[in-house]
Specification:
There is one protein chain. The chain is 19% helix and 22% strand. It is an alpha/beta fold and 201 residues long. The protein has a six-stranded parallel β-sheet with strand order 5-2-1-6-7-8. A two-stranded antiparallel ribbon has the order 3-4. The relative contact order is 0.20.
Length: 201
Amino acid sequence: MRPLNEAILVIDVQKDFCPGGALAVEGGDEIVAPINAMVPEFGVRVFTQDWHPSDHLSFASQHEGSEPFSMTEMPYGPQVLWPDHCVIGSEGACFHRRLDTRKADMIIRKGFRREIDSYSAFFENDHETPTGLEGYLKSRGVDTLTMVGLATDYCVNYSAVDAAKLGFKVTVIESLCRAIDLQGSLKAAKDGMADAGVTLA
């Protein structure tokens, strides 16, 4: 058992991010069993879910003539336009069927505001609107985080960098993550995490 100041953050291991899903990450289902084995080591366990309304503005379908994976400008900065995914209440938004969430202390749902995407478990993409996770972890006495999940270069990356900026000691277990790697995004994410003081294990 890990010390009680350590928490595991299991990020977005959902059907739509696994093979066969709307925004599938290659090998996304390969990490489920080892994550299940690791979670019980921790006294504090948090899972996150992407949780979008069907007309979310990060969806390419909401921008006439736009293709998935193209870019647009939002009030908060550049935004990738994604295929519709993890729509609230849909099958694709559910956790992977083999992911054991019974030991979760908290489930954070993010991206439910239509106008703003939310990669990070701590802040929406304006880098200002909090999810409440920081306060929860600090109230539990947590100062050290281990992160696993999907995808390395987006939601894991943003969560890890934000956590480091908030003063947490952060380790990302690379073997328990998988990446989208959109136009070099994986290398950029790994460089950014390292620069922020995140340990890539």
